[in-house]
Amino acid sequence: MSGPQTCRENSHARTQVITCSTSPFVQGQHDATFPERLFTYNYRLYDRYRRPVASLAVLADDRESWKPTHYGYQLYGCEVGIHFPTVKLLDYARQIEALLEDPNPFALVTAAHLFTRRTRGDPEQRYAAKWQLAKLL
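Now predict its structure.
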């Protein structure tokens, strides 16, 4: 689900900064429990490091309508939850040429993912897509 978490302390004369980072939460298929899992990982990181945590959902599934952005619940006047930014790789399907020209390595990874989806079941097209990506490396 997520990559390794790290915390690092930088001490200066009058300040102390501790930053925590984690990989984005990547979900490859629709899963109704995903927002709750993201909430759980987020609060566990906070509980462990006692530092603010930012979570990003990266959705690599095929369902255009599924784009969760929050999880939470209310009970007896108490409200607990999280709102998180979501990136849907499918939203970039019409921008493959721009992704291939972008120097950001995540753009190339996104293009590769989209090519994989587009060429499923077509070995010749898949080979051509792989060759196009390999020439960019």
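Strands lie at 6-11, 16-21, 25-27, 57-59, 70-75, 78-83, 86-88.
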